[in-house]
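Quick start: read one record
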Amino acid sequence: LDTAPAILDLLGLEPPPEWQGRSLLEPEPRIAFFFTDYSLGLLGLRDGPWKLIHETDSGRSRLFDLSRDPREEEDLAVRYPERVQAYRDRLLAWLAAQVGRIRRPFSR
């Protein structure tokens, strides 16, 4: 989602207002959301060094500190339950917004 706005930013152009993405060149930090193909049922977010992976089928979430564990070998979810809950809430709210955007064109 952010690649096209970044290219336009390099060209000195503004992206259309209906685009969701933002330029990767913007300096302020922000949370990045991601998903795998639907058959795997994995969603996630990245916030600085933190990465949350959420399994939609089981409801299980895993948390990693990528600055200390770039291979994602140590799940920190039990150690930081408040962070996991806050990230999960943001992730599921983002998912609901995406589903709403997808269904809107078909509901007419």
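The first strand starts at residue 32 and ends at 35.
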